[in-house]
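Protein entry
_____________
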Amino acid sequence: MGSPRAAGVRATDLLLPAALATWLVALHGVHSPALDDWGLLSALPVAFYLALALLALSTVVVLFSPAPSRLRLALHLVALIVMLHGTVPLIFPETNFPWAYKHMGVAGNINLRGGANSTIDIYQNWPGFFAAAAWFDHIAGVSSPLSYAKWAPVYFNLLFCLELAFILRQLRLSSRQRWLALFISVGGNWVGQDYFAPQALALVLSLAAYGMMLAWFQADRPPAVLRWVARIGRRIVGARADATSAPAVVATGDAGRLAGADRVFGLVLVFAVFSVVVVTHQLSPYLVFVGLALAAAAGFVRPRWIVAGLTAVTIAYLVPHLAYLHRSQNLAGSPLNPRDVLNALSNPLDNLRSGGFGGNPRPGRAITSKGAPLLIVGLWALAGCGALRRFRARRPMLLMVLLAGSPLLLAFGQNYGGEAIFRIYLFSLPWVSALAACALVGDGVRWPRVRSVATGVVLAGVLTLFLATFYGSVELYRVRPGSVAASEYFYAHARPGSVLGLGAPNFPGRVAANYDEFQTGSVPPTLTTLPAFVGHQLGPGDVTALNAVYQAHVAATSGSVYLCLGADQDEYAHALGFFPEGSLAHLDQALAVSPRWRVVYRNRDAVIYQFLPSGGTAP
């Protein structure tokens, strides 16, 4: 007969299958549910949340078992990714995130035109991701990424975890700490930059660059001054006096330096991967080499000239594209100004503010939006506890602290449309997760019951805040099939040079490969940005004002001027408090009887109107 402990472990083996089965049962029959200001939270059955609870419980049980199984932990990690990021693509027929569709259009355009054209837009000036997608579409025989893009969050998170697992092996962490860091990083990644976008690929490749640098070029000992500062710091905080412990600033893992031909090959691989990052995303390479520069300055990366070489690669690619950036800023009416740079440098706290969505959010949206700041502050606070704990225990932590803090330098750049804080959080998440795991799990197995309970509570909290932040905002990102069909119809039938205005911004625009034939510089502003339309029920009384807005864009448009309204836009505008519920539907009814507007396309989800400048027949 087995021991009670063994019998208990065998019984808990059923938790993971039970969680997966419960999840599948919960999602059975849930298809394109109606959403309110609570997003997907109120649309999912209780069984879904029970499935996540079972998975979290099973994860803690396996993690704190006497000999944690790497296979079982890996299966739990994959299950968590699938549950968190596979639910949305399972229950919605189209790719969520309206802005993902313009990326599909760029990939299609590269195939249609036979290559990237840097005169079209900024995406084709940094075409790495789009060229890869175009190549994949070509060899796979698909006409557009529409057929697979909605699963991007699943496979990007799987790649993210593979890269992070490789990085964590280069740090002096226990097996439990490494695995817990992976689970925290998955639950903490609510930012939504893992959809079909250059940022997702750039993040994965950035982690690969970090991993190779730490595995092959990590130094054995930091400078003497850092060791001296560490000794003073440990005396101040009362660190444990243990002569056998490694110095607290040493961060070398189980990897050694490369030599000879292996070293040359390693350098070539690092520069090759980093070069792909450079041509894929405008911001990511700067975040990478800033982190590596801090690590090199602190003596953790040798030789230092590698970081200088990576910087040179970034600048060498940027310089030829500065003319386009300057020209595009001028076209937008805001030319590049050195004073703007100085203002950004002097207002880092202002740059950390989130732009949000605007409007006057409904109660559910207002409550769920608090999940993001709580998760950011909570994980950073837990990471701080982990860093202090390792410092007092004379365990290596400085390298992780430097890499976690390096994205904060982005605050001295610019606000990035209110997204700076999210980019900072995203690039700090791998290191923050590692330090947070160190706060919960020590290098040994002392107090396993207490640590397991604390870990379970933290995992439950992280998952709860993830659900509130990510699932609680699905109504803002949802894209119905009819909206996609309306977008495709516009690009297939409108005259070149035409423009398409919107009631709200969450529309899958530029989805077609020929998007470059249409005008983007004089598009009428969305109704949610115009004070004359916001805050009241739209209807016949707004048609005259709408006519004036669209008439102002007729002369600057070589084609025709159109307006698209739809259920997705109505849902978005109502959740954020721009309009009362059903406002855009009421406006649709008013436009249907106006002589200045003509319906050119309609389905159950969306309608496209053509504006008739003279009230007669349009070209």
In short: The beta strands are 499-502, 561-566, 597-602, 606-611. The chain has a mean pLDDT of 85. The CA atoms of residues 35 and 475 lie 6 Å apart. The two ends are 86 Å apart (CA to CA).
